[in-house]
């Protein structure tokens, strides 16, 4: 849906702490290019469990997908500007929400209530998260991404 046009293709996909609790129509029908997801185990802004599950399902469906989770790493663990953890009390979080799904008409709905999801009105939306740098997670993820990009883009 958001990929290049004119016959071009991405060589691979890299995601850092993505949201993985939204299920779109044909959500396992993804391009046959490697997918790498990096997440922090301590991420309370966008918890890693949804991504761990999604990447597992992609792998079982035969896709080249891997999930790397870093212990003690929060959201934006790769931002050196956050060496001192920052509490964001008004951050809207969906960790208490059931999976959100695409309805037949293309809207995102709460999978339990089937009502359109909005951050403003869905009762499952909570508040409060922490963002923080994690030097080890940053270094390990940088190494993994560098190796991945070299393997995908350098001539053999």
What would you note in describing this structure?
The protein is an alpha/beta fold. The chain has one domain (about 15-25, about 30-155). It has 2 helices and 8 strands; from the N terminus they run βββαβββββα. Strands 1-3-4 form a 3-stranded parallel beta sheet, sandwiched between helices. A 3-stranded mixed beta sheet has the order 2-6-7, with no helix packed on it. A hairpin with a 5-residue loop joins β6 (about 100) and β7 (about 110). The longest helix is centred in the C-terminal third of the chain and has 19 residues, at about 135-155.
The biggest beta sheet reads: 3 strands, parallel
Task: List the total number of helices.
Answer: 2
> If you average the pLDDT, what whole number results?
93
Question: pLDDT under 50 segments (min length 5)?
Answer: none
Quick gist of this model?
The protein has helices at 49-60, 135-153, and strands spanning 13-16, 22-23, 35-40, 65-70, 86-93, 100-102, 108-110, 126-131. It has 156 residues and is an alpha/beta fold.
Summary tags:
2 helices; 8 strands; three-stranded mixed sheet; alpha/beta; flat; 156 residues
Give the SSE map:
Elements lengths: L12 E4 L5 E2 L11 E6 L8 H12 L4 E6 L15 E8 L6 E3 L5 E3 L15 E6 L3 H19 L3
Parallel strand pairs: 1-3, 2-6, 3-4
Antiparallel strand pairs: 5-8, 6-7
């Amino acid at each position: 849906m958001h990929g290049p046009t004119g016959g071009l293709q991405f060589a691979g996909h890299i995601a850092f702490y993505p949201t993985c609790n939204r299920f779109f129509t044909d959500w396992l029908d993804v391009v046959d290019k490697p997918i790498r997801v990096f997440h922090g185990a301590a991420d309370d802004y966008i918890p890693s469990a949804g991504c761990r599950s999604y990447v597992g399902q992609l792998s079982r469906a035969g896709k080249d997908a891997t999930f790397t989770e870093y212990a003690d790493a929060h959201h934006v663990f790769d931002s050196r500007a956050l060496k001192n953890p920052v509490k964001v009390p008004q951050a809207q979080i969906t960790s208490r929400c059931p999976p959100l799904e695409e309805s037949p008409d293309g809207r995102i709905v709460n999978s339990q209530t089937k009502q359109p999801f909005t951050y403003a009105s869905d009762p499952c939306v909570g508040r409060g998260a922490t963002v923080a740098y994690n030097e080890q997670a940053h270094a390990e993820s940088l190494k993994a991404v560098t190796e991945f990009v070299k393997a995908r883009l350098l001539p053999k």
